[in-house]
Predict the structure.
Amino acid sequence: MNIAIMGYGKMGKEIEKVALRRGHRISVKVDEENAGSICGKDLSGTDVAIEFSTPETAVENIFKCFDAKIPVIVGTTGWMARFQDVKNRCEKEKQALFWSSNFSLGVNIFFRMNEHLARLMNGQKGYEPSMTEIHHIQKKDAPSGTAITLAEGLMKNYERKKKWINNHTEREDQLSVISLREGETPGTHIVRWQSEVDDIEIRHTAHNRSGFAIGAILAAEYMKGKTGVRGMADLLGF
């Protein structure tokens, strides 16, 4: 396939390495220098775009892909306030959008573990859940999209928590999500259930960016010939 990389930073470069190893070609690279000049016609000959830019530019890049009628794989987080607008256009025009807050196969298994544990804990009133996420200092959004997905998955299956807070909270109905930014950490997410007698903790630690890049390329391969809004649950068959 001919792949456009929209957001040619550290993640974009890792995606390029994986794509080339799997026999694909890079048709367009969009970075800070040329982002303003790229339009739909520049994507001619591209089979799929992979978008890992910034929260401020993600929607514009998605719409450029829609204009060019090519599937777009989106890993940028922090733009969810406009998700419904993007989804509406995608469905109305029979476009193709694959979005995930995290493309790591391990993280998406972790999402399911988190939901299952929350269901088990729903009747155990002696435990208090909380979350911590740790990322590199360049990450612009906090909490991470992955942490938000984890928080929403927990609350969906645990009746006492109604809202997450990106800080420590003592309120019974609020879930504490702590965001730390340290060095070059690719991503660590911890879900902790604490009681007076013990703690239960599940953790996912990324060792590098390769896992995210592999998932993005698998998503690009999966979306060939498909339309609509898809995600990792579709790719993994959950």
